[in-house]
Design a protein that fits this description.
The chain is built from 15 helices and nine strands. The protein has about 450 residues and is of the alpha+beta class. The protein has three domains: about 1-140, Alpha Horseshoe (Serine Threonine Protein Phosphatase 5, Tetratricopeptide repeat); about 170-335, no CATH class; about 360-440, Sporulation related repeat (Alpha-Beta Plaits, 2-Layer Sandwich). The strands form three sheets. Strands 7-8-6-9 form a four-stranded antiparallel sheet, with helices on one face. Strand 2 and strand 3 (about 110-115) form a beta hairpin. Helix 3 packs antiparallel against helix 4, helix 9 packs antiparallel against helix 10 (about 265-280) and helix 11 (about 300-315) packs antiparallel against helix 12 (about 320-335). The longest helix has 18 residues, at about 190-205. Residues about 1-35 and about 130-180 have low confidence and may be disordered.
Length: about 450
């Protein structure tokens, strides 16, 4: 059995004039054995929602498994912002499981669609974002609420409520264990948020919602959040809370299904998809955090190594990445080399102080992409903090990171001791300048 119904979906940018197409309704082959559902559809096409609801309810009282009336009620409730009732109608249709031969036409695609698919589509949208329905006068378009009508929730991208679903996978699919957000024991809230983002990105790749190239590009731009000492600084904000994995995956499936059913344009789909993925993990960060500081003391170093082992065990980092980050932690923990003893002065000659050799206490001020940028940065920092940096000399250390590029770390020193470096950094941080105690070669 096939019924033709006016557009079950809306694109918010359409005008009221474009919503009227009574010729479409006049040509609908409505069945005479289902007059109440047919009358309800006709009244809803004219925006007479109250009258349409009465007809649909009469049809349901006469036959509790009238999927035409149930679907009409679902769209009506969704259009008027009664989302709980709309969800109940769609779930009832899925419980009845009508044959796929029972179809309706969607305005954006005049080829009839199975009623069970339309119900699945709308239910998925309600679960993943609450996109409003738009059955208005037989055309695709969600209009502004009328007086006395509940205001429906805003559509994320003007998607049609009856033309978007959970994508290529079955709408009724239950959440898989990998869909939940990942946590690692012993992590703080901020660190746990970072891990959750990498877990979600991995699940999206495994479910085919992003390509391997997209996964690699976004991971490469943000891996510094997991490997702060051996990778470039990541984007800011990765430590903020993020929606659950299944919620993000469900939204991507929904807009994918909307594109397949021509409820949204290619550009609309691409814009929302990019927005979702950039909010999760940007491919080209606009701003990055300050370079990661090395562990302060053996306890912090032990915690950092334990965290690395957890990340490796869960597959978030590779064995090579683990080895490089651990080596960087161990180097940061090495004590500075003792200065060479003074050479004995000959009797006729005046004794002279031996110049210290080996790493000296210093401060790490910033990292740059080029030597020229580092030199320019030192000049700016020295002018801005003349009283604190007076007497210190710059040293730029070139660091080559595999697949991460070359970075130039700006050090200033030497200072008298590690304690003096810590105190100097404390004063600079009060001025909102990044600073971490470190070591540098002989100046």
């Amino acid at each position: 059995m096939a019924l033709l119904a006016g557009g079950l979906a809306g694109c918010g940018g359409m005008t009221e004039g474009s919503l009227v197409n009574m010729d479409f309704w006049d040509a609908s082959p409505l069945f005479f054995d289902n007059d109440q559902a047919e009358l309800g559809l006709a009244e809803m096409a004219k925006d007479n929602y109250g009258t349409a609801e009465l007809h649909f309810k009469k049809a349901v009282r006469r036959n509790a498994e009238d999927v035409d009336a149930l679907l009409g009620l679902g769209v009506l409730y969704q259009n008027t912002g009664q989302l709980t009732k709309a969800r109940e109608m769609y779930e009832a249709i899925l419980a009845i499981r009508p044959e796929r031969s029972v179809k309706m036409s969607v305005w954006t695609n005049l080829s009839p669609e199975p009623v069970i698919d339309i119900a699945s589509v709308n239910l998925a949208l309600l679960e993943s974002g609450g996109v409003p329905g738009g059955m208005t006068k037989g055309a695709a378009g969600a209009t502004a609420p009328r007086p006395g009508q509940a205001t429906p929730p805003p559509a994320a991208s003007g998607m049609a409520a009856a033309s978007a679903s959970t994508g290529r996978t079955a709408p009724a699919r239950t959440a898989q264990p990998q869909g939940a957000s990942m946590t690692l024991p012993g992590l703080s809230g901020a660190a746990d948020n970072v891990v959750s983002r990498f877990h979600t990105l991995t699940v999206l790749r495994d479910q085919g919602l992003i390509t391997p190239d997209e996964f690699n590009t976004r991971r490469r731009a943000s891996i510094g959040a997991l490997l702060p000492l051996s990778s470039p600084p990541p984007a800011t904000g990765l430590d903020r809370p993020v929606p659950g994995t299944e919620q993000i995956a469900g939204r991507l499936r929904a807009i994918g299904r909307a594109l397949e059913m021509r409820a949204v344009s290619v550009s609309q789909h691409a814009a929302e998809r990019t927005m979702i993925l950039d909010a999760l993990m940007p491919a080209a960060p606009v701003s990055v955090v300050n370079p990661g500081r090395p562990p302060q003391g053996l306890l912090e170093a032990a915690d950092a190594v334990r965290r690395l082992e957890q990340l490796k065990g869960q597959g978030f980092i590779t064995a090579d990445e683990y080895a490089k980050e651990r080596k960087a932690i161990e180097l940061a923990m090495q004590p500075p080399a003792l200065p060479a003893p003074k050479a004995a002065a000959s009797a006729p000659e005046k004794a002279s102080a031996a110049k210290p050799t080996g790493p000296q206490p210093a401060i790490h001020l910033a990292s740059y992409r080029s030597q020229k940028a580092a030199d320019r940065g030192w000049a700016q920092l020295r002018r801005a903090h003349r009283s604190l940096l007076a007497g210190l000399k710059p040293e730029v250390a070139k660091v080559d990171l595999a697949r991460k590029g070359t970075w130039y770390r700006l050090m200033a020193g030497p200072v008298k001791s590690s304690q003096a470096a810590t105190e100097l950094c404390r004063k600079l941080k009060r001025r909102r300048q990044f600073c971490e105690p470190s070591f540098m070669g002989t100046i």
